[in-house]
Amino acid sequence: MTSVTTDLFGPGSGPLTVDDLAGMPDDGRRYELLDGVLIVSPAPGRRHQRVIVLLGMRLEVACPDEMELLIAPFAVQPSRSTELQPDLLVAREADLTDKNLPTAPLLAVEVLSPSTTLYDLHTKKAAYERMGVASYWLVDPQELVLTVFEADQSGHFQQVAVVKDEEEFLAERPFPVRVVPAELVRRPGR
Asked: Where in the numbering of this chain does the Putative restriction endonuclease domain appear (predicted)?
């Protein structure tokens, strides 16, 4: 279950900053910060991890030299009060530091799990939209569904695709790549 808190250091301590994240335990949970609010999610399960690995492999093969694919945990830290860690992200090489991505990624991917679905569908989606992310993908590893949102000219996400099972999505952003949801849970060649 995902939990949210602003009172980590006692009542009246105020919003948290990215500096507060350094004191979080290394316990396998994901600690994120959104507008000063701490979001704690449990470690992902096996199927979730498989989707991350297989989608990551597909994206890595297609990724142009001027971009880089990174897998969580890697901090997207556009402000002192926000640090998100998408399951996968693609960013311009020039935008990255060794420690974080201080601007919006070109692509943020979240793999849904029972404890994070509402957070990923609503809160995180809205945060990525405000941040200026060009493409946001949600993968449901149980239902084998990929939902794709892309920012329109005004910066608002529009749902541009929902593909299921053996259907294919031919992405244009941030680079051309073919994704078939059912292939994200099978080992290549099987």
From this structure: 21-176
Closest to 174 measured CA to CA, from 66, 23, 81:
66
CB contact set of 152 (below 8 Å; sequence gap of 6+): 158
User: Residue 112 is encoded by which pair of tokens?
Assistant: 């849904």
pTM of the model as a whole = 0.87
Tokens of 148: 């794709």
Mind listing the pLDDT tens digit for each residue in 59-109?
999 999 999 999 998 999 999 898 899 999 999 999 999 999 999 999 999
| Residue 170, beta-bridge partner list | 178
Can you tell me the distance from the alpha carbon of 175 to that of 47, in angstroms, rounded to the nearest whole number?
26
**How far apart are the C-alpha atoms of 138 and 136, rounded to whole Å?**
7
Q: How far, in Å, CA of 75 to CA of 27, rounded?
A: 17
Rounded-to-integer distance, Cα 78 and Cα 55, Å? 25
Q: Give the domains, in start order, of the chain with CATH numbers.
A: 44-184 (3.90.1570.10)
Cβ pair 93, 68 in contact under 8 A: yes
Residue-wise pLDDT tens digits, 10-34:
444 568 888 888 888 888 788 878 8
Query: Nearest-CA neighbor of 21 among 11, 2, 12, 34?
Result: 34
Cα–Cα distance measured from residue 157 to residue 184, given in angstroms and rounded to the nearest whole number: 24
The total number of residues written for the chain in this structure: 190
Cα–Cα distances in angstroms (integers) from residue 127 to residues 77, 86, 104, 147, 169, in the given order? 12, 12, 10, 17, 24
